Amino acid sequence: MKTLLAIVLLATTVFAQQKTPPPPGAARPLNLPKITEKKLANGLTVVLAPLPSVPKISAMLTFRSATTASDREAHPGIAQIAASVANEGTDTRTSIQIKEELRSIGGSLGLGSDADSTTMTATSLSEFSTRLFDLMSDVAQHPSFPEAEVKLAQENTIQNIRAGRADPGFLVNERFQKAVFGDHPYSFVVPDEKSISALTRNDLRAFVTRFYIPNTAFLVVVGDIDVDKTFAEVEKAFGGWKSGTVPPDDNPPVPKRDKRQIYFVNRPGSVQSAIYIGNVSIPRKDKDYFAIRTASTIYGGSFYSRLTRNIREAKGYTYSPFSSSNTQAKTGSFLAGAFVRNEVTGPTLLEIFYELDRMRVLPVTDEELNAAKEYSTGNFSVELASQLGLAGRISTIYTYDLDKNFINDFRPKIEALTTADIQRVAAKYFDTYHAAVVIVGDWEKVKDQVTPFGDVTIYDAEGNIVSKS
Amino acid sequence: MAPVVTVAVYYNVGFRLEPKGRTGFAHLFEHMMFQGSANVKKFEHAKFVEANGGSLNGHTDFDYTNYYQTMPSNRVELGIWLESDRMRSLDISEENLKNQQAVVSEEVRVNVLNQPYQFFEWISLWENAFTNWNNSHNGYGDLAEINAATIEDVRNFFKTYYAPNNAVLTVVGDVDVNDVKKMVEKHFASIPNQPMPARADLTEPPQTKEKRISQTDKLANLPALAIGYHLPAQNSPDFPAIALLIRILQVGESSRWYQRLVKEKELTLDLSGGLNYFGNEFDYTGPMISTTRATYKPGHTADEVIKEMDAVIADIASKGITDKELADAKVSYRSNFYSQLEGSMGKAHLLSALAIFRDDPQQINSLLTPFEKVTAAQVKAAAAKYLVATNRTVIDRVQEAKAQPKSEK
Lengths: 469, 409
What we know:
CATH class of the largest domain in chain A: Alpha Beta
CATH topology of the largest domain in chain B: Cytochrome Bc1 Complex, Chain A, domain 1
Structural class of chain B: alpha+beta
Oligomer: heterodimer
Number of domains of chain A: 2
Helix content of chain A: 40-55%
Number of helices of chain B: 16
Strand content of chain A: 15-25%
Radius of gyration of chain B: 23 Å
Number of strands of chain B: 9
Strand content of chain B: 5-15%
CATH architecture of the largest domain in chain A: 2-Layer Sandwich
């Protein structure tokens, strides 16, 4: 016992507990990815980036013409159903053959659609890259939409949406998109049951023929690859894909809010209120992209953010408050959110508004801005170090038609921001006076705390308006 | 290599070891580790890491609690210093405890109490499948017990479990090993050890008959089912075979149960789960059950689903699996293993688990071997031995009767 104590004391005299944070050492070189862009004769853009972090590859094939808005008048929701059934059978492979092939190459392959594109994301061991490209190419060009698979997907989608309507996270997001984007196609979240049921196999085949076309698509391959060899494999797999007619771009007007409005989704039995507050912001290409993103980091987009320090660490109202800047091709949204116990619903609204207004009225400190810059650039390096992270980042450059130097320019653009830039975008986009305030909770329990903040429209979980004030 | 480093500290204590009458305490304690120490004020840990370009978190699991930050690699000493400061001198105040009891209560509300199904495939399944309190109790915690915790509880837990001899520090990334060794020596060497805590008895009596539980759910719109089978210990010769069998049954859309339940019989909407609900084959040490969860379609019953699952097991137990099925399962296992190791945090996680539970991080280089050696006969035998009704717990969770939802407007 004595000996042990002596050792401890000795150690303490040699190394006293350091009272101040150690300074950084010399920065190690940031090896930015080497990205090669090529084009096939059919118009398919191919982007390759070696990243041998593990002996695997990640490939993302993005159809820029297939969005949730495509064909929406005749067949609302068709992009989603097409994406979910496209890998359930091709002209030469059954569903189970596709899934078994994926298992035998250590792979995965799924499709998802959003407001700006449909993306097929696939991975495999790098030793099986040719088999993965064959499969991707087959699913892109020849999905057969077997009758039984379509019927099952329709039924399961309807049931999944019903299941989702029990989840406050689903409900608050759905109502927020509808409140902010109104009649714009970006308001779409899930199709209604009637539209799902009405779709036929022929509708889906026609949709894919028209919108899954190589001349508006791009394929990003990241991983343990050799650029020339991989490009040859891609060309062999995708070279025979026929070009299509580029559908006309449609750019409906973005709605503008004229007042603050509360949208309350009544979910009796809730022990918390799920709160989203926000408004329309900017398209992804807008010059204010970096400023809003950084303003959001300071406001609620990082752990040491203002909103977290206030309503979590000081007041204990919530577990994980947040904010996010979601920019898309035609417009975007900024939102702040928190899930809080019923008793503090009103006080939380007050604090979210207060912190938003504070960003508008007063400049952030240099210390806050510098911390946000370090946070953004440091985490950007981590993102680029993973195959899927880098593939996703490169894909945004093509989906949103950004400057090809986006990755290299990221750090200087972030570093150029000033506190005045942050205040300017906050003043414009953190506008509490025209915000959509969406709350999912138990109306009877929290109504007295909510009504002081504005006019309220009450919905049920299915989206029907129950009452309006 | 990316100029990035992960600094992680794993403590050899998870929610199995929290005190009786204090469900959720190990996790509440995890929150207290962000409330400041001698030279780092409340929540400043987050400030230092983020303002230096990093991200951070902590996680409480069955058998460990970890704290980690991933940062630009030239900030490695900052991460080491931050972890040493809280291991040496956590600052515990009444006010901060109250604040985090409120925060954790909201975490339980958002992830459990205000959710349909309320995490039943973990919390209820473990409560029912196990008989030893250490294994069976709700690790997220009962709100009343979370809020009953005292400052003395926090001090005792810290002193008992948060000593250097009950922890492992792992550093992975673009750094110089010798430099890092010096930093670790400088900041950690003088933190005193504590007597090793007595190990709790985690043993479970063997289950001898099937457990079936019915529950109703006030918030859900569709019925769901959760099933857990007791698994052999990690050092059992049967372990690699049962691990591959679980993948063959329920991981991915080619799996046998997915194909039978979702595709052929159209009974369930989904199928999820795996060998270790929160992690992998290596990052736990006490008794484990497999987890299977499925949302099933209205108009059907849990019995119909179970009958189909049993038919698949019976088929494997009598006819075995094909050589191709086994070979493919090994490929997909290997591929998944690589993905887990891709980032610095992934490597740090596995190294830490092997260090803390096996005292042998070198095993990371040979972990795949036992799985590569599994034979079809072993998989067949594992199905017959472990996937039997008497070894399982089944929970059928049905929504409280309510009007059929109207179609959407």
